[in-house]
Amino acid sequence: MSTRRVLALLGVLAVLAAAGCDPAPRREVAAAPVNPGWRPLVLPAPPGPPGRALLRDATACAGRWYAVGGLADTAGGTRPAAWSSLDGTTWTALPIAADSFYGRQNVLYAAGCRDGVLAAIGAKVGGAHGYPRVSTWRQRADGGLVEVSASFETYGGPKAVNVSRLAGGPRGWLIVGNRSSGAAAWVSPDAADFALVEGAPELAGDGRGATWAFDAVGVPEGWLAVGGVLPAGRIDRDPAVWSSADGRSWRRAVLPGTERYEEAQRVALLDGVPVAVGLRGDGFGAWRRTGDDWVAAGGFAGAAAGVGSGVRAAGAPSVDGLVAAGSRLLAAVSDGAARSVWTSTDRGDSWQPVALPLPVAAGAQRDVAVLAVGERSWLFADDGERSAVWSGSVSGVPR
């Protein structure tokens, strides 16, 4: 066979391979994980009976840092807990004022910050049907957290599905979650009284598909929420985003996807540019907004495949956190077997793993949360037996 014919055949094969390949971006893994030089910090025990700290989420804004979770006693009881810091190094336990039976047992799992003020969502499974009993919490002028009174059907009731994430923004506060009608929102100007927005056109499910919302972020023009839509007659979700000026009226956009299962589970602003990370097939993928459009960015595999844990995945994969750390992104994920943290320096086009100070398996009672202010990063980890916090610098800038 002549050289020309060989080259022509190779060209045809390349075209066929490209046509048959999944267009999902690459999953490049660095030879060695990034080492942030994690340094342990101390979270003081809150007042009251002793218990094991449960760390679930963290946030920061306007020169204040916050971590939220709860305390678990030896009998299995829980109560809410939260900590604050003025420098990210020295932490103080916040006073907690619960107003209800389940509020006194809440574990705070989502935190938001606006103008240096904390708000949070907590829950405790209970009642005849074993549903999560959800409460929201706001920070008082003295720094303590107080439970916000709300009717049962605000977050629960026969149409309830879940209450997911909380965000503070220029327009106030927004919670996203899901009801039987699909994606839903709760809005408030001051985190003292949230109004439920369900069945809203474009946000809720409709003839184009069933919707699901995971996360939201405040943007100058209002709000941006992320999630997925399951088109009628299909079994795989497509990633979706919603935009709103007031949290009540929404506009939906379906992101570039493939024939695989995809959904955006977390969103963050990197230099003002929204970037979302979520599931993409059997791994994780990123999308970012470019002008008025969204483009698919890179992907990665997660802990078991990417870092070589050798543990077979037994649970559902998830993205548990996404923050901007200076010019980088930090994503905390679970691949169903282990939890891991990944970083990107190019707005999600390529990713590499971050070394953790301890292994954390996947599981309902285990969590890894990430936080960043400038070039400095924090890791909050609960391996099911103990919780701890560390600070470091993924970029290598001195802490």
Automatic annotation (TrEMBL):
Keywords: Signal. It comes from the Bacteria. Residues 1-17 form the signal peptide. SUPFAM superfamilies: Sialidases. This is BNR repeat-like domain-containing protein.
